[in-house]
Amino acid sequence: MTVIQPNSVAGINSITVQSGNSLAIHKSNGELLRTITGTTGVSTFSSISVGTAYTDNSAAKSINIGVGASISQHDANTLSLGTGGDERARIDSSGRLLLGTTTEGHGNADDLTIATSANTGITIRSGTSNGGNIFFSDATSGTGEYAGMISYDHNDNIMTFATTDGTERLRITSTGDINVSTAATIKANGNATFSGIVTATSFSGSGANLTGISAGTSLSGSTNNQVTTVTGANAIQGESNLTFDGTDLDIIKSNSSIRLTCSNETPTLNFNANSLSDAGRIKVAESGGGGVMLFYSNTSGTLTESFRINTDQTVSIGNYAANSAKLNLNQDGTHITCRSPSTGGYYSIYFRSANTNVGNIFFNSGGVQFNTSSDYRRKENVVGITSAITRLKTLIPKRFNFITESGVTRDGFLAHEVTTVPEAITGTKDAVSTTADVTAGISTYVGEPIYQTIDQSKLVPLLTAALQEAVTKIETLETKVAALEGG
Known about the structure:
Blueprint: E1 2-4, E2 12-18, E3 22-27, E4 32-36, E5 47-54, E6 61-67, E7 69-73, E8 79-83, E9 86-91, E10 97-99, E11 112-114, E12 131-136, E13 148-153, E14 158-163, E15 167-172, E16 178-180, E17 184-186, E18 192-194, E19 218-220, E20 226-232, E21 235-244, E22 249-251, E23 268-273, E24 276-287, E25 290-299, E26 302-309, E27 315-317, E28 327-329, E29 346-353, E30 356-364, E31 367-372, H1 388-392, E32 398-400, E33 410-412, E34 425-426, H2 435-439, E35 453-454, H3 460-486
Parallel strand pairs: 5-6, 10-11, 19-21, 27-28
Antiparallel strand pairs: 1-2, 2-3, 3-4, 6-7, 7-8, 8-9, 9-10, 12-13, 13-14, 14-15, 15-16, 16-17, 17-18, 20-21, 21-22, 23-24, 24-25, 25-26, 26-27, 29-30, 30-31, 32-33, 34-35
């Protein structure tokens, strides 16, 4: 056993190296202070004082240095520095540095947190002809080390802001002027110059002080609510025919128009009503070098196309495939209503061919008339009908029902059997549609049956002539019978 007596250490009488790899430290009165044992030679102390140390530090584990200074651990995996008996700085378990606080800042900026109960700040002190900088980096070499920066030049007393590899974007000069790159300068006295286009969302005042926008620029016609336009290289004009009061945009001119030009997108007008967004919409789509106008309405919160005007000037409602039909209606329960609020007669539809009226639909409170042209001035080679009874006998009336109406029996004809009045029949027996028929809107697919139709009103002239022939024969027979009865 070896005994060392360190007379220079107050309060310690001896340090004894004992057998069994142990070290004992005793007070002068013989009281044991600490024993270090084991092969590691490691023991723990709640606190260690260096020099004439005194501190009010409350940490359970600390190194006290001189008066009031300490290095301590208040919580697990943390390191604190203190002065005057108070904690001043802490490195927490996540490696964050906290000055004047034990609570870190927001998660996006918590690596260094500084807090006091009064004004708080950081000072960057540089040489009188040098700069102070804050760099924003995402790399350890190259331009990424200074991708963004804030810099103050003490030599010229200017502050600059830079982005994208340190490129200067904004500068505040020693006189208070603000330079936005090379595009604009805002003077400390309120004057501003711009090298590019200036867009304002609102304009107030007479505009008399805007003459300095650029050399020679002037503003005229500045009545309230007038929209201004550029009328020349250095002239701005208030348009008397175009006003906007914050609610309504008015164009006051007999030949006014609104033009929407989109190079890559579809020009669209959206309409909002009350609290309903997109209550309606008008859109123009390019198709084969032409424009198709689409009209939408809102049904239960969903915008749905109602109808469109195709490039060939046809209108499609419910069926959006363009074809030669000028008006396409495709919807269950489709109908067209012609209504007159007053009594009287009205022509609801006119039919014209080669700019000539060839028929119409007329209605009044008593009923509807379907009229076709019959004026003598449109006819020639007029002769009477002969052999009407003979022709009438070729008609073969039938009773039948349509396949889709099995419970309804009708009187009529089979179209292909009506040969004596061919103008009453349209179509060809057993015809089916071709590609041209589908394109023309006659059919929906190739091979679909194209059914013959009959206009039975065209049989009336033959029926009338046959009846007249029969009446003539009846009258002749009546005359002969009367002669025989009287003889």
